[in-house]
Amino acid sequence: MDNNISNIAVLTSGGDAPGMNAAIRAVVRACSFYNIKCTGVFRGYQGLLDADFEDLDARSVRNVINKGGTFLKSSRCEDFRKPEGRKLAYDNLKSVGADALIVIGGNGTFTGAQLLIDEYNFPVVGIPATIDNDINGTDYTLGYDTALNTVVEAIDKIRDTASSHNRLFLIEVMGRDAGDIALNSGVGAGAEEIMIPEETDSMRRLMDSLKSSRKKGKTSSIIVVAEGDKSGKNVFELSEHIQESLEDYDIRVSVLGHIQRGGVPSCFDRVLASKLGVGAVEAIINNTLNVMVGISHKKVVQIPLKDAIEPRRYFDKELRRVADITSV
Ligand code: F6P
Fold it and tell me: Which of 207, 215, 231, 265 falls between 20 and 30 A from 36, CA-CA?
């Protein structure tokens, strides 16, 4: 061990994601393996403010690897956005004896952590966990794979009724400002069109696609719409817009909502969580601080937390091309 770390605190924050429990488990067990005390923080940053702490040992995390959600609970904490809130959080971390903090969450979680680093020089390591898969520096975030499978299963079911009734279904999926869930589930479920925020011509694409579908004799259609789509219309307004120009379509809207965040984590997410949880503790032990541990080409990598927070520019254009070819 290269430094004097004897106590690591861990919290989950922001929208929960399947695999968070598996990540907590890996953090706790890695701490146990390296003889480091692990302090669990309940309810994310709110728990730091309220000193809602509990010692965790290897046995505290038995039977959690297969559970969705997070047993440490989560929150979106307004008070942590205020300087006095962060001062209280820092004081509480010091008084519980924590030498470093592992935060498991998405962009908002990391933005809060970066403030703790900048203002108090308190060491933090982030583990990316959000169904949105919208974090720089990692190929995958925890929960994304499970959410994708949930979405594809739901769309498969909707397809049965869509084809039985010759209907057009607009299916809204989550993802905030990223189209990863929409694009990947759309390809995986064989959607006719996919609307994602990374493209500015999604409305034109949709109308062209629907017109040509009709000409080709397609009688039912599945359109996947990312919640962050930038066409300027929500999914219900889109439905009205389509109906006005294509009157013979029988259209239904389905907003999948929070079912996408729940459920048993996939094996992929459990393995990823285990790698990143161990990687986070080992980063701290090796004095690689203020980073996010991510996955790149199957390897655990560390990138500065401040870079992970930057808006992601990447968008899988190759998959869009595949989507266009496979939906003809
Ligand atoms: O970031 C995860 C996410 O599920 C997004 O896809 C979605 O936009 C948002 O959280 C919903 O947040 P809430 O649960 O606070 O409504």
Answer: 265
Cα–ligand 1 centroid distance for 194 (angstroms):
20
Contact criterion met (CB below 8 Å) for 7 and 98: yes
Residue 109 Cβ contacting ligand 1 at under 6 Å = no
Does the annotation mark 307 as catalytic? no
The pTM of the full predicted model, rounded to 2 decimals, is 0.97
> Which tokens sit at 285?
């032990």
Residues 213, 215, 216: CA angle, nearest 5 degrees: 65
What is the length of the chain?
A: 328
Strand pairing category for 37-41 and 53-56: antiparallel
> And the tokens for 169?
């279904």
The first and second tokens of residue 193, run together, are 């069109």
Write down the catalytic residue from 2, 57, 79, 132.
132
Q: Token pair of 23, please? A: 């990540």
pLDDT along the chain (328 residues), means of 10: 85 98 98 98 97 98 98 94 96 98 97 97 98 97 98 98 96 98 98 96 93 83 97 96 92 98 98 98 98 97 97 91 95
